[in-house]
Amino acid sequence: MKRIASLCVVSAVLASPALAEEFQWAGQTDPQTMDPHAVSSAPVLGFLNNVYDGLVRMSKDMEIEPSLAESWEPIGEGEGWRFTLRQGVTFHDGAAFDADDVLFSYERASDESSDVRSWFSPVTEVKVVDDFTIEFYTNAPNPLFPASIANWMMMDRGWAEANNATRPDKESGNFATLNVNGTGAFMLEDRQPGLSTTVVPNPNYWDAVEHNITKATFTPIQNPATAVAALLSGDVDFVEPVPIQDAARLEQDPNVNIIRGIETRTIMLGFAHEADTLKYGTSAGDANPFQDVRVREAVAKAINVDAILQTIWRGSAEAASQLVTPALSSYSEVHAERPAFDPEGAKALLAEAGYVDGFGFGLKCPNDRYPNDEAVCQAITAMLAQVGIQVEIDAMPVSNYWPELRADNFDMYLLGWSPGGSLDHEHPLRFLASTPNEEKKLGSWNFGGYSNARLDEALPSILAEIDPAKRQALIDEVVGIYQSEHAYVPLYTQPLVWGMRSNIDLTQRPDNFFILRWVTVN
Amino acid sequence: MLSFIIRRLGQSVLVLLVTGLIAFSMFRFVGDPIDNMLGQERTIEDVERLRAQLGLDQPFPVQYYKFLEGAVQGNFGVSYRQGRPVSEILLERAPATLELAAVSGVLAIVFGIALGVFTAIRRNGATAHMIMAASLIGVSLPTFLIGILLIYLFSVELGWLPSFGRGETVDIGGWSTGFLTESGLKALILPSITLGLYQMTLIMRLVRSEMLEVLRQDYIRFARARGLKDRVVNFRHALKNTMVPVVTVIGLQLGAIIAFAIITETVFQWPGVGLLFINAIQFVDVPVMAAYLMLISVMFVGINLMVDILYVFIDPRLRVDRAGGH
Q1: For chain A, what percent of residues have pLDDT higher than 70?
Q2: Interface contact A193-B271, CB threshold 8 A
């Protein structure tokens, strides 16, 4: 392989002054489909961002920028959004891109069989004005709509119809599960599910080319030790994620570079707000102490997040005060403070709430969902024991974990949340802080049933408010509510650790998407 | 002979049905596949609709019956993760595992028997003692550790061999083989050593102890007394008579090589059925798990059957008994 690669370098040097290279990269999870509307998961959407384009896209600093839409503007007083499309763009098979393809992609992505249709729940109507203008009408003013569709990718109507792939098929797959016809910077050359996926540059790409890759191959490598070895031996040029415990050692190697960033995912503790009694531990059957805000605050004060970051995360994660990270624009600056570590204060609060001798309860914890999840739960157990609360940990694989949480089998649980879609504070507010309401599709991950009337009332205004200052004021107010009520105990934001050969330049984005367009092989 | 085979076949079918039932009833403890199939923005309706589409809302006996009905016709359903027929995926992945297992098996048998004979004949030599001591490593170190050690030595430090994967493969009538390219052969070396090491040491130790046993027998002494050459005595008389228990163990170990390829495949990211199975567990991909477990049990049952039949051919006493008809 190396010999082939060096031959390529030689021929490329002879052919043109620009150096070009084959690029090999590895990640932990294979994108399970090539269909951009079938599965809404980071591995799939992250990969497909290289071969498909949306109307808008995220820049290197997570700001939205024009992609297949050259510009967009609100219609009237927030009735919707009008997008002006880029002209002269073609799909990989040569077909021209126009408004009809956008309409088709809307029909496809908002269909019942699509996994991304929640992005379009505010949309009431889509109107094609002319070949390069399209309008989206929303049920209420929706300032976030353009940002929330950054991962909505455009497909060609003709291609989908010719290949019987007009709707995503999650259960048995169709032509679009294995094949790609996008407008993106790269074209799919070879796809072997679970084994390898190869892309080559799109010669007719509409945007300026920043990379110098001639061919790129992705291989999923599940075992972190193998991935690290592959990087060290030069069999791959880039690996993500690098295990935290290997990062420091890899940094010593002159052939390898490590970049660290902060992910958009926040790890937190959740409480069984609604349960009348405890279900696990030594006090099982007793009245649920977590219904008392003083007990929840005591938990927040008893946990030494800095110690967790130092010992378990070796200093590479950041403490969290809210449900989103400071990297996102809707973070509430006025509420940046998190409860200080104060075991005496925690004990005092517990005594005040009538738990002088503490109590015992059960903590549910995943052991393969987030990095170090179980270790963090164990650390928390030890810290809570210091203030007299006895924790019984029940750690399990994630495929058992969600069913348990959904069945309300917990007193307290560990949860990580990454605001997909809009990358805005409204996302965790909608899913984690709203009172659960199936009809309105609110609070679907609020397992503990936290509920606050003012927060519920403010949410629609947050979603609809166009003026950024007013909107932020509303968010600040709501953050103040969930913080003072200790609805959750935000713990920390996960780090992103990527490893690459030292001749590779690339850009790390906080959403953990790996964008090939930004890769340079030196 | 025929009735023996028929009786064994009947037992085999029963074993398969029971294995299937146990495997299938365990899947409900692996978790809920729906969570992995829908994103975080799913609604309760989405969950219920998908559950009904996959038939997961039906009672357990119905699900098991449907699975058996399909399996008998060679239809194992569609993978939840890949959205493709399981039989297609298994066929695609099988060559990688079978080639790896074949190479490991050959390595284990050839080196195992050779070293076993050597250490038995030269049982007091320094080399034999060294080999015996080294074989302890093969028996006692866990596979994944040996794999990682080999990767660090030969890929990271020396840079001679690839650290993962299968290299380039050539497709011959739907069978992708790594035997025909340089990178394919190179990629086979480390995984096959890792996978075969345990079996090799096992066979070696077994051959050695059987051989030592046989070498003490009277007929060996008589053979030597007749003035036969050492080579003839050792290989024609002694080795042949040690082979009956060795063949049994080799047969069972061949099954184990394929079944335990899971760990080696995970360490080397070897794209075989073992790796497929591990991924299926993480994703609660029930159709893939079920098909894999059924295939493995079919294989074990088949190997056992063959070993029983082979016995009859290797051990002349069994044949004489039957020919004698008493």
Answers
A1: 96
A2: no
- SS3 of B237-287: HHHHHHHHHHHHHHHHHHHHHHHHHHHHHHHCCCCCHHHHHHHHHHHCCHH
Q: How far is CA A461 from CA A99, A428, A477, A504, B166, in A?
A: 31, 15, 12, 45, 56
Residue of B nearest to A170 (CA): B83
pLDDT at A268: 96
Longest CA–CA span in chain A (Å) reads 80
Cβ partners under 8 Å of residue B206, min gap 6: B116, B245, B246, B249
β-bridge mates for residue A493, sequence order: A266, A318
CB-nearest partner of B266 from A115, A222, A233: A222
The separation between CA A64 and the C-alpha centre of its own chain, rounded to angstroms, equals 16
> Would the CB atoms of A225 and B32 count as touching at under 8 Å?
no
> Helix B273-283 and helix B86-121: axis angle, to 10°?
130
Neighboring chain A residues of B32 at a CB cutoff of 8 Å: 399-400, 402-403
Q: Is residue A459 packed enough to be buried (19+ CB in 10 Å), middle (13-18) or exposed (0-12)? A: buried
Strand order in the sheet with A80-85: A69-75, A80-85, A133-138, A123-130
> Which chain A residues contact residue B283 at CB under 8 A?
399
What is the C-alpha R_g of chain B? 24
Indicate the residue of B78, B183, B284 with minimum beta-carbon distance to A399.
B284
Which candidate, A52, A84, A225, places its Cα nearest to that of A153? A52
Reported as a pLDDT band with limits 50, 70 and 90, residue A9 is: very low
Residue with tokens 């005496």: A344
Of B43, B54, B183, which is closest to A171 when you measure between CB atoms?
Answer: B54
For residue B81, the chain A residue with the least C-alpha distance is A32
For the whole model, what pTM was predicted? Answer: 0.83
Asked whether the beta carbons of residue B43 and residue A170 sit closer than 8 angstroms, the reply is no
Q: Give the C-alpha separation, A486 to A296, whole Å.
A: 6
Q: How many CB pairs under 8 A join A and B?
A: 142
E-assigned strands of chain B?
170-172, 175-177
Q: How far is B69 from chain A (nearest CA, A)?
A: 19
pLDDT beyond 70 at B195? yes
Cα–Cα distance for residue pair A2/A22, rounded to 1 Å:
10
Q: Convert the pLDDT of each residue in A283-304 to its tens digit.
A: 989 999 999 999 999 999 999 9
Determine the average pLDDT of the residues in A189-210. Answer: 92
